């Protein structure tokens, strides 16, 4: 038995939710470029869960279900207030809060298809409330209740700031949610599938996935990109900073991908959004710095930007705190996680691969006093 490092190239499951073939990303066969230009996030959520685009009444019903399920138990909001607030990363708060949601769900252990679908709706609805409420509580502000007449993207921005967002902000945020919704068998989705393949519950699968997304080699990279842009500070500093990192063999966050070799098709949409929004906020320097970083990293290492690179300056331009970038990724990706969890339940087999043993051969036990 020989291990494949990082499971590269290993085909671990079948799925009909999303695919990456020849650097093209599709959700249920729809090209991501088509969806990014035309579909709302709620349509994409429906697509991932039902494997078909919704009709008018189906979309209206899903929107209503999401809006109606956004409120979270007061106990969880009170719990936020007990945290050592300045030390807690919002991804850790989200991980705990999603775990707590299960405690207040009477159907948490009901494994019927109907109950699991309802839990998917509740997780999708409540995660945006949890992220925005935590952000406010740590600033000493009260959470803002969702408005049932707003769409998902608008509601997130409204609950975050307490102000009704502008149309351009809603459009950009909605598109970012569409672009992050699913991505074949990425690390967090695989984690979710492994977890629920033991027939554990959907909350456990999503909590496990949040943990996997948090790391800087996966969803956590978007926050690190913003940290890098902040450190570099000016266009003049870019070359020296990036060249030094590359010379030291440090990774440049937001570049490279396990599956894409020619480039991540989502990055160009975020690049365009970054250009527009940074200019609107009179912070074009962030876009200019990003473009120069891309020129150097692509030129020297042949590594194109991934979804996390330009999303950083997009979220910054929406006045979002930098440590909320990865929780926002989770708010979108929970649609994909839950779609994969439901798909796993529908045709389940325990996921249990083997390991190549590289430790010592058979050894004889030595009593502790003789070691
Ligand atoms: C939503 C997402 O999860 S998208 C990915 C987000 N993560 C990041 O942006 C973090 C930075 N990128 C990386 O760490 C990697 O490119 C990953 C984790 C995305 C993919 O990793 P892998 O497929 O395992 O590639 P691996 O890390 O083995 O890299 C292969 C080679 O490219 C180099 N490389 C890969 N990414 C980068 C990078 N961002 N900066 C510099 N060099 C890089 C590696 O150093 C390695 O070089 P070597 O062969 O000389 O040792
Ligand atoms: O697919 C991956 O490995 C990582 C990624 O881009 C994503 O999860 O969106």
Automatic annotation (TrEMBL):
Gene3D superfamilies: Citrate Synthase, domain 1 (1.10.580.10), Cytochrome P450-Terp, domain 2 (1.10.230.10). One of its GO terms (cellular component) is cytosol. GO terms for biological process: carbohydrate metabolic process; tricarboxylic acid cycle. The active site is at 257, 308. One of its GO terms (molecular function) is citrate synthase activity. It comes from the Bacteria. This is Citrate synthase. It comes from Psychrobacillus insolitus. Pfam families: Citrate_synt. The keyword Transferase applies. Keywords: Transferase, Tricarboxylic acid cycle. It catalyses: oxaloacetate + acetyl-CoA + H2O = citrate + CoA + H(+). Belongs to the citrate synthase family. Pathway: Carbohydrate metabolism; tricarboxylic acid cycle; isocitrate from oxaloacetate: step 1/2.
